[in-house]
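Quiz preparation item.
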């Protein structure tokens, strides 16, 4: 069967952006705190609407940031021909590509995009200076086509919008298929007749150079992030906070009452007659009452009383319950959301973070496969045939577990002495160690070995001095 034409691919990909645009923009709005208003009566005034804006408690960035902050690629291990993986080394072509693309800092935006919207993308290509670099692409502006969206890691084609239409000025986009890159212009995402495609150049790779990073993907090929399932629960929290603010503003203080006494009214200073309003009723004077003033009345039938304030604890408990539901559904430990960390042992903290650790491990597996494809693409574009076929290489994730250095040192020492694991194989398990530090340690170790070998050679080359002094006879 003949492959689709570039024009047909462009129409399909722009159609995907049009189809998913409303859903992705809805997710983006909740990520940045633009939430749906809580329920208000039709006659709500400006004061109500002000409280509604203040009721927004945006938990979504925390749901994205908590796992994203534990995702940090710290190295790449090449697949060895003998079945053994070599140690991380910054001199490998893969890691040089990583550093040239400045992905130490830029990788976080790729993870956050995938976690928020369900997927994000990267493109690996040569820049104007001729260097092979990888950069991230937004899910709001990028779409990809797969023959099998659930299982394929290589898209048949991908498109990213570089400029949206402005009035009569057409929008611009870049399209990649398995061989070439194309320039695309369009007036609207759903206007197929306005789409124009112009071939630009071969991109140099043997397949589409765009790689998808997906948080969750099902067997239907649908991607899902961490925000969309939590929108209903976020709305519930906002509604409860809004009700709390209403009760706090209008019913949280006692109301003093008095019956059987007419209030003083405004009087004309010249005639002494009451001043009437437009309906002919006397205008009462404002009563300046506070905790320092004493109320009294001459009429014995006057009765003073008060209306109790509205209890707020029920609203607070409801907010706390909703946040706990959010914690359970999002697999984020409650102390990350509630800040309640007092009197928790190390074992209790570790048990509370088990679900989050499993969730992060799932993301690392998915994102790690995507990075491996990126490295193979970069190797192909650089002319490194062996690395382009390296399907056994893997990225090295930094250990972000919360452990003390003393505990880690004790555990690593036991692994060395009791299990006989080589000490150099345990170096990268030291908490917080970076790949550069590992290489420095390796160099220091080699320098120390060289010095020791030199000292041993000098010792062997130097003959021992003989004691030739003979004892003198008495």
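Solution:
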């Amino acid at each position: 069967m003949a492959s689709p034409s570039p024009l047909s691919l462009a129409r399909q990909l722009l159609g995907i952006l049009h189809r998913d645009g409303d859903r992705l923009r809805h997710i983006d709005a909740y990520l940045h705190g633009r939430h749906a208003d809580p329920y208000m009566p039709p006659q709500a005034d400006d004061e109500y609407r002000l409280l509604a804006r203040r009721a927004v408690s945006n938990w979504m960035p925390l749901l994205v940031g908590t796992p994203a902050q534990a995702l940090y690629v710290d190295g790449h291990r090449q697949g060895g021909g003998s079945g053994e993986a070599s140690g991380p080394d910054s001199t490998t072509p893969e890691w040089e590509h990583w550093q040239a693309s400045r992905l130490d800092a830029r990788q976080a935006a790729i993870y956050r995009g995938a976690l928020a919207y369900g997927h994000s993308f990267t493109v690996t290509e040569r820049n104007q200076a001729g260097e092979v670099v990888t950069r991230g692409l937004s899910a709001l502006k990028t779409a990809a086509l797969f023959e099998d969206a659930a299982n394929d890691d290589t898209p048949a084609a991908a498109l990213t919008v570089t400029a949206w239409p402005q009035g009569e000025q057409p929008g611009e986009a870049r399209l990649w298929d398995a061989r070439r890159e194309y320039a695309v212009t369009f007036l609207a995402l759903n206007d197929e007749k306005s789409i124009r495609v112009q071939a630009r150049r071969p991109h140099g790779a043997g397949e589409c150079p765009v790689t998808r990073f997906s948080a969750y993907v099902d067997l239907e090929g649908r991607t899902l992030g961490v925000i969309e399932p939590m929108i209903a629960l976020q709305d519930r929290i906002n509604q409860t906070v809004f009700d709390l603010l209403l009760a706090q503003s209008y019913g949280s203080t006692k109301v003093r009452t008095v019956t059987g006494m007419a209030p003083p009214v405004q009087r004309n200073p010249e005639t002494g007659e009451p001043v009437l309003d437009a309906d002919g009723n006397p205008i009462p004077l404002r009563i300046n009452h506070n905790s320092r003033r004493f109320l009294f009345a001459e009429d014995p039938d006057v009765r003073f009383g008060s209306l109790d304030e509205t209890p707020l604890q029920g609203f607070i408990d409801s907010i706390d319950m909703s946040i706990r539901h959010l914690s359970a559904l999002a697999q984020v430990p409650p102390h990350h959301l509630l800040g309640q960390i007092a009197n928790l042992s190390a074992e209790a903290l570790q048990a509370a973070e088990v679900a989050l650790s499993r969730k992060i491990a799932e993301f690392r597996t998915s994102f790690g496969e995507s990075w491996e494809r990126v490295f193979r693409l970069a190797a192909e574009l650089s002319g490194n045939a062996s690395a382009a076929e390296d399907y056994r290489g893997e990225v090295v994730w930094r250990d972000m577990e919360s452990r003390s250095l003393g505990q880690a040192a004790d555990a690593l020492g036991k692994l060395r002495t009791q299990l006989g694991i080589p000490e150099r194989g345990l170096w990268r398990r030291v908490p917080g160690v970076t790949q550069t530090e590992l290489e420095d340690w390796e160099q220091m170790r080699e320098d120390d070995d060289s010095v020791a070998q030199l000292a041993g050679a000098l010792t062997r080359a130097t003959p021992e001095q003989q004691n030739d002094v003979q004892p003198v006879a008495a």
